[in-house]
Amino acid sequence: MVDEDRTTLAPTEIYGRSDEEQNGPRIWRKKTEEPPGNCIVYSLTIFVIVFAVCLILSLIFLRISKPEIEIVSISTRDLRFGGNSSNPYFNATLVSDISIRNSNFGAFEFGDSSLRVVYADHGVVGETTIGGRRVEAHKTVRVTGIVAEIGSFWLLNKRDLDSDLRLGFLELRSVAEIRGMVKVLGRRRWKVSVMSCTMRLNLKGRFIQNLLCD
């Protein structure tokens, strides 16, 4: 049998329709570019957030407050009192411990300061010195053994002293003013801390009671 030549009837190439695009079918893609208005909103939002964070941090770290000072304990020694109605007297030695609390983010340095003891509303009856020092950031320093000699010889007017001596109590107030500098991140500020502590000197018991600091 003689092989016959066979002609393939299927077309070897497929031609697209004349109305179809030669570059292939269209593919839909989502646009990734944001409108200009949205970029401005995002930029402003980021700016506001950064500004708010900086403001909060500055209020926390750069805020400078005055240190707090108060009497922790106080005792008496060498107490003497007496006399008559025309010439009453008293004298004693007060030994106190004070604390200085620095709540700032920088150190507090102060020089020598005075501590005065006042009898009721009649005036100063004693004075001493608090030695200057440095209190580190967020630290509390305790100053011990501050000695103040008090006595009625300071008074020009001894009105009511005789009656107070007979009652056995003297109302005293300890006042101190510390002036120093706080340094925070290169900033320096002068601060004045004032201490005012009231107390009662029990003459018969020879001790201090009702100690209260503002």
Automatic annotation (TrEMBL):
GO cellular component, one term: plasma membrane
Entry's transmembrane regions: 40-62
Compartments reported by the entry: Membrane
Annotated GO biological process: defense response to other organism
Keyword NAD set for record: no
InterPro entries recorded: NDR1-like
Region entry Disordered, spans: 1-30
Top-rank taxon, per record: Eukaryota
Record's keyword terms, sorted: Membrane, Transmembrane, Transmembrane helix
Listed name of the protein: Late embryogenesis abundant protein LEA-2 subgroup domain-containing protein
Species of origin: Eutrema salsugineum (Saltwater cress)
